[in-house]
Amino acid sequence: MYRELAKVAFGYPIIDNHAHPFLKEKHRDAIRYEVLISEAHGDALNDAVHTLPCMRAAAQLSQLFGLTGDDATWEGVKNKRLEFDYAELCKLCMEPTGIQCILFDDGLGGIAEMAEELNWHDQYTGSKSKRIVRLEVEGQNILQDILVANDSSPLSIDILCGTFLKEFTTYMNDTAVDDHVVGYKSVACYRTGLDVDPAPCSADELHECLASASEQFKENGSIRFEHKALNDHLVKIVLDIAGKCKKPIQFHTGLGDNDITLTKSSPAHMQPIIKAFPETIFVLLHSSYPYTRDAGYLTSVYKNVYLDFGEIFPFISADAQRTVVRQVLELAPTNKILWSTDAAWWPERFYLATAQAREVIYEVLAGFVSKRDITEDQAVSIVKMAFFENANRVYMLGLQPNVSILSLQS
């Protein structure tokens, strides 16, 4: 046991640089619980209970909930959690995490209808929560509002395009000076892939995309941007704004559900757009799993690229988590790695993510120390940077680590 390393690995405060809000109490059982440990949807979720991540999560949550013997199962966990008062459940899960500040992406589908407001979560952290703006969702909302406002007298496609781009750019410029907003996020990976084209798109292309989106709204009553020229154009608008205001932009990379095209989810596709915006800070989310090495490579050769090693906790096995963390550390500068839960909906996800991450980072770094690859002091410094210091600097949070937020263990 390396005592100083254990002390920080299991007890240092954490800035969670990417997460999603809790469900409100009345919606606490509105989403299938297997989403806690899998990105699968529909019938594929039936198989999630047979994975190593689910078995490990069941054991850890059983211990947290005081379940033993035949009750310490996934079904036992699902039943027991509903017996807790919701506030009690949230406190039970969040107190051991040591999370001091959470940066929330509130653009996930269902949040507006079922989730708590961002600063509601401040009761479980030592610092105020901050917002990450999901650009595609805001764009969809803006276009939808324009179409609704002009329903009785539809705008020409030329005027619609000009109005939409003006309002979108104005909104993003307003967020650039909003102290509650500390960054942006793109889900281009889900929509059209990470091969964002740095070249300008033509007016004809934008008109065609907006006409298609408008028709989609007429038919379905909703809009989902899946038009490459438009999506790429909006990303570039925000990349420019983010570079000027020095607020990072996060990109979903790698690990996701069946809505992504896996072959287009590697951050290697982003090299041209990273080169085109050297003043903009790119944060590659979710360990870029299974393309972690691609992401680490980019962080090592581009000053403006950072890597988040989140979401793998609890979504992949413990052994795989250790492998991913080792791959992150193969090449990525340790002053450019960040950590997040990517938790959504339930406090249990925050608990599992932090408990597993603390265990894994200790084991990996202790292994390096034992082989004399690094000193224990260097390992301690890496933990502090990964869990707190790097995110504090990159998102310009101005926080001091509150070491009293969690009882330090040894």
Automatic annotation (TrEMBL):
PANTHER family: AMIDOHYDROLASE 2 FAMILY PROTEIN, NODULIN 6
Name of protein: Amidohydrolase-related domain-containing protein
Taxonomy, superkingdom: Eukaryota
Pfam families: Amidohydro_2
UniProt-listed InterPro entries: Amidohydro-rel (IPR006680), Metal_Hydrolase (IPR032466)
Organism, as annotated: Suillus luteus UH-Slu-Lm8-n1
A molecular function (GO) term: hydrolase activity
Domain Amidohydrolase-related residue range list: 238-395
SUPFAM superfamilies, A to Z: Metallo-dependent hydrolases
